Amino acid sequence: MATTGPSAEPRGPRRRALVTGASAGIGAVFAERLARDQYDVVLVARSRDRLEALAKRIRDERGMEAEVLPADLTVPEELARVEKSIAADSRLELLVNNAGFGTYGPFAELDPEREELEIRLNVIALVRLARAALPVMLARGHGSIVNVSSLAGWQPCPHNATYGATKAFVNSFTEALHEELRGTGVKVQALCPGFTRTEFQERAGIDTSALPDFAWMEPEAVVEASLEGLRRGEVLCVPGAHNKALAAVTSVLPRAVTRRMAGAIARRFGM
Ligand code: NAP
Q1: Interatomic CA distance for residues 41 and 35, integer angstroms
Q2: 39 is catalytic
């Protein structure tokens, strides 16, 4: 059987992966794919029923262990429960910090409570779970963390300001950790998808019907690119040729230009 996991398969007990936001979208695909790659999985999100259904499918179809850990990661006590579970998990080989959501619209009109929850989930929970996982991984000398970011983190995002800023945080944080972890055997990656067909846009309440088909990726392709990128030690993983091209252009244009372009695109698509 080909080894398709992100780092060399350790001898001994089976590897485990914990995926946040595993009840839908990219997280659910990560969980299924990792189970296929012979990982036992721990599934975290708020929707217990959806997690149970996925766990059952993984057990039945893949024969792997699948544990369900329902938690709202914006609630400190529930986040602490997941941190504790991670810190005590000597088999944790991969943490996928995937749970996240976006808010759209003129910032002055957005609900401040929801903006705060967005920062709690996309930033605080991600940081705390990474902090919980690293000591165990460092002690073992192997393990990986995928922090799911976004192309939105590559430039300021007018009408999507808080979301873009949370993802810019994730990119910077992950790149810094990568340098700290050099030579330890522990890998980190910021996964930066563009538009991906999941529940994300619907939850954010944006109409994407005007977006052309070529702008979209399927979550399976995003997950494949992430795991392949981990194997190659890619720190900022941008899945898809069209997204790579956009990221490359964004990286070389002056900031003043990219933020104006991002504002014009947001207005064009009525965000
Ligand atoms: P999705 O289909 O909406 O899935 C989001 C997941 O996060 C769900 O499992 C949801 O489950 C979970 N979640 C939401 N709030 C939570 C909370 N408070 N506590 C715990 N779990 C919570 O969206 P997705 O596209 O797969 O998003 C996954 C990641 O990809 C996010 O970080 C997003 O920013 C990033 N991303 C997505 C796109 C895109 O176009 N789809 C593009 C770039 C980046 P429950 O509702 O059950 O809690």
Answers
A1: 7
A2: no
Structure tokens at 163: 């979301």
| Nearest CA-CA partner of 62 in 71, 73, 54, 52 | 54
Q: Which of 104, 154, 163, 195 is catalytic?
A: 163
H helical segments located in 186-240: 200-204, 219-232
Report yes or no: 190 and 237 within 8 Å, Cβ to Cβ: yes
The span from the CA of 7 to the CA of 119, in Å, is 30
Cα–Cα distances in angstroms (integers) from residue 269 to residues 72, 205, 235, in the given order: 31, 13, 31
Tell the burial category of 187 from Cβ atoms under 10 Å away from its Cβ (0-12, 13-18, 19+): buried
Locate the ligand 1 atom nearest the alpha carbon of residue 27 and give its number: 26
Cα 49 to ligand 1 centre (Å)? 16
- Do the Cβ atoms of 4 and 227 come closer than 8 Å? yes
Alpha helices, H only, the chain: 25-36, 48-62, 76-87, 112-119, 126-140, 161-180, 200-204, 219-232, 241-252, 255-268
Residue range 253-259: average pLDDT? Answer: 95
What is the CA(98)–ligand 1 centre distance, in A? 7
Contact 41, 18 (CB under 8 A): yes
**Structure confidence by residue, pLDDT tens digits, 44-91:** 999 999 999 999 999 999 999 999 999 999 999 999 999 999 999 999
Span from the CA of 88 to the centroid of ligand 1 (angstroms)? 25
Q: Is 145 helix (H, G, I), strand (E, B) or coil?
A: strand
Residues with CB under 6 A from ligand 1: 20-27, 45-47, 50, 72-74, 98-102, 121, 148, 150, 193, 195-196, 198-200, 203
